[in-house]
Structure formats: structure tokens, C-alpha cells
Automatic annotation (TrEMBL):
Highest taxon in the source lineage: Eukaryota
PANTHER family cross-referenced by the UniProt entry: OS10G0403700 PROTEIN, PTHR46368
Protein name: Uncharacterized protein
Pfam families documented for this protein: GFO_IDH_MocA (PF01408), GFO_IDH_MocA_C3 (PF22725)
A molecular-function term among this protein's GO annotations: nucleotide binding
Transmembrane segment boundaries: none
Length: 365
């Protein structure tokens, strides 16, 4: 009696809505991820869409190029849309995509405030489509390995202190012309761009328990238009946990997260983008004691390998959720929009504290 292998699921067909620089990385990820096809590219002109497709090696066969965003959203052969547009445009185009039944992979920061994000999520709920933000490091196997160690309690104990930094030094052209320093495009500046990752990492470390209060660090740096270039905050939980982060467009490239527990300290120096695409490290010092001539035991270095880059793993997971909805009648996975909203709520509180001169701000979910 012969067995017949189950057919491969039909690929998830992506449309890329906008040709921002970050979309180049995502186009590559879609080419690498199994079960995914790039079906269409939409831009403000068909020529720009064609140039993007050519520059990024997208197969011409079957690829549709649209000269307006509306045309891509009206394309019946697009299942899901990736949106890398400036944050100020997210509500308009994310809700338009979801209303047309397109599953939504949305670049971060997902919105300028939680109220705007709620409008997007409500449209996704009404249409029954999957929402996910594109915080890529969440999908790296290193992240899962670290989560296992934290949850195991023995190596780390209870997390008490968290520190995070994400910064890079923008050149003069960036500081004058990039969309991330323009108040009409990405008004959250460094807080929305690199601060999003710090806040997400902190929430991830405490299994998404929201802090009670945030207090912005004093003397944030803004450009002449009032957009944040360097800022930070300390987050406080009712049980005594604290977390501090700094995010900046003005200091050397740094991507640190340090978790300090009652039993151990976990440290990652490249948490957003690993130094190498196929391997990623972190160190764990557990039950450490100070000796006259050093530490005992020494920290352990953990190395986690992956065949696919984290962007492709994110696209693959998103596609898997879509295939479950399409082929098995599953409901959209609620975990991802819930995590996004908690990140946005904390970001809003930090922004409010900055605007109030570093006064304490309660975090309200």
C-alpha cells in the first residue's frame, strides 16, 4: 500500500507597498523564505517599482508592478502586504490593506500613538486578517534559546534589572534628510526607530508584564524641528524590577541588552542584528562569585546557528500563520498584535514623560 505525500501548501503571495531602504532587506527575506512568493511591488510610479524589482533580483515572471499604492491593494493575487512607509502614513495604508482582506506585516514603529495603532488593529480584527510588526530579532532562534534559559529560572533566577542600548551615529546627510528626522514623516525620531527595539527587548525579558511607571531621562536631544535624536527612560514595576534604555542617532553603533537576575546575568551585544547572519552569541554568568584573582565560574558563551537570516524566519512564520488561516480555517494569532500594542503603550508613556520634562507617567494599557 503506497502512501501519497501531502501537497505543499500554496505559497503566500506578498505585495511590497513602498520602496523604502528597509524594503530591500525584506525583499531578500521573501526570496529566501520557503512558502513565500513576491507577487507585486507598489510605488508612487511604475518605473520606481520596476527599478526596485530589478535592483533586488525579484523574478520578473508573474511579478506585477503597480504605479500606485491603491492598485497594489486592489490586486486580487496579493494575500499579504508588507508596509515600510513612513510612520505618519501607517494608519491610512494599513487600514486600507486590512479592509481589503490583506494580511499585514507592518514596519516599526507601527504608529505614532496607541490610538492610531488601535485603529489599525480594529480593522484587522474586523477583516479577520493576521497582523504582525517587523521586529525581526524576535524570530531568531537565539531569542528562543534565551527565553528557555530565562523561563528555566535556575540559571537566571528572577529578573530584577534590565539595561538596553540601541544607537548608531547618523552622518550629516542622515541628520538633515532622512525621513526619521522629519516631523511630518516620522515624528517619533530615535524613540520610534531604535527606541522601539529597546522597549520591546525589555518587555520580552519580563514576559510582557507592563511597567507601572516610566520616567524619561533628562536632557533629551532634539533637532531644530523638535524630533528626538537621543533619549531614554527608566521603567519601574510594582514588584521592584527596573529597566533603563537609551536610544540615539548620535553615538556609535551599539545593540546591547543586559538582564540581571537573582542567580545570573545574561548579556547580548548584537541583539537587533547579529554580527554574523548564520550564528549569534550571548553570554550567561550564573551563580557568580568574586575571587581574589577573578570570577568563578566564568560566564558561558552560547552560540546559536541558523540556516536562514532572522528576516526570512520572520516572513516564514508570518506565512505559516496565513496558511493556517487560509487552508485550515484558523483564526489570526492574537499574540503578535498584543505584543505590538504593549510596546506602543510603553513608547507613548516615554514620549509623554519627555514632553512633560521627565515627570513620572503611569503606563495605562
Amino acid at each position: 500500500m503506497s502512501s501519497v505525500a501531502a501537497p505543499e501548501p500554496r505559497p503566500v503571495r506578498f505585495g511590497i507597498l513602498g520602496c523604502a531602504t528597509i524594503a530591500r532587506k525584506m525583499a531578500r527575506a521573501m526570496l529566501l523564505a520557503p512558502g513565500v512568493a513576491v507577487a507585486a511591488v507598489g510605488s508612487r510610479s511604475e518605473e520606481k517599482a520596476r527599478l526596485f524589482a530589478t535592483d533586488n533580483g525579484l523574478p520578473a515572471a508573474g511579478l506585477r508592478l503597480h504605479g500606485t499604492y491603491e492598485a497594489l491593494l486592489d490586486d486580487p493575487d496579493v494575500d499579504a502586504v508588507y508596509i515600510p512607509l513612513p510612520t505618519s502614513l501607517h494608519v491610512r495604508w494599513a487600514t486600507a490593506a486590512a479592509a481589503r482582506g490583506k494580511h499585514l506585516l507592518l514596519e516599526k514603529p507601527t504608529a505614532l500613538c496607541a490610538a492610531d495603532l488601535d485603529a489599525i488593529l480594529a480593522t484587522c480584527d474586523a477583516a479577520g486578517v493576521q497582523f504582525m510588526d517587523s521586529t525581526m530579532w524576535m524570530h531568531h532562534p537565539r531569542t528562543a534559546k534565551m527565553r528557555d534559559l530565562i523561563n528555566g529560572k535556575d540559571a537566571m533566577g528572577d529578573i530584577k534589572v534590565i539595561n538596553s542600548v540601541f544607537s548608531f551615529r547618523g552622518n550629516e546627510d542622515f541628520l538633515q534628510n532622512d525621513i526619521r528626522v522629519k516631523p511630518d514623516l516620522d515624528a517619533l525620531g530615535a524613540l520610534g526607530d531604535v527606541g522601539w527595539y529597546c522597549i520591546r527587548a525589555i518587555l520580552w525579558a519580563v514576559d510582557y508584564e507592563l511597567p507601572k511607571t516610566v520616567i524619561a531621562l533628562r536632557y533629551p536631544v532634539k533637532n531644530q524641528a523638535g524630533v528626538l535624536l537621543d533619549c531614554g527612560a527608566t521603567l519601574y514595576w510594582a514588584d521592584g524590577k527596573t529597566a533603563t534604555f537609551n536610544c540615539s542617532f548620535l553615538t556609535n553603533l551599539t545593540m546591547d541588552i543586559t538582564l540581571i537576575g537573582t542567580n545570573g546575568t545574561l548579556h547580548v551585544t548584537d541583539f537587533v542584528i547579529p554580527y554574523q547572519e548564520k550564528s549569534a552569541e550571548f553570554s550567561l554568568a550564573s551563580k557568580s562569585e568574586e575571587l581574589d584573582n577573578g570570577w568563578d565560574p566564568l560566564p558561558n558563551k552560547h552560540v546559536v546557528m541558523t540556516d536562514l537570516p532572522q528576516e526570512a524566519l520572520m516572513v516564514q512564520e508570518f506565512a505559516r500563520l496565513l496558511q493556517n488561516i487560509r487552508d485550515s480555517g484558523s483564526k489570526p494569532e492574537g499574540k503578535w498584535p498584543a505584543i505590538t500594542r504593549k510596546t506602543q503603550v510603553v513608547l507613548d508613556a516615554v514620549k509623554a514623560s519627555i514632553d512633560k520634562g521627565s515627570e513620572p507617567v503611569e503606563v495605562v494599557n
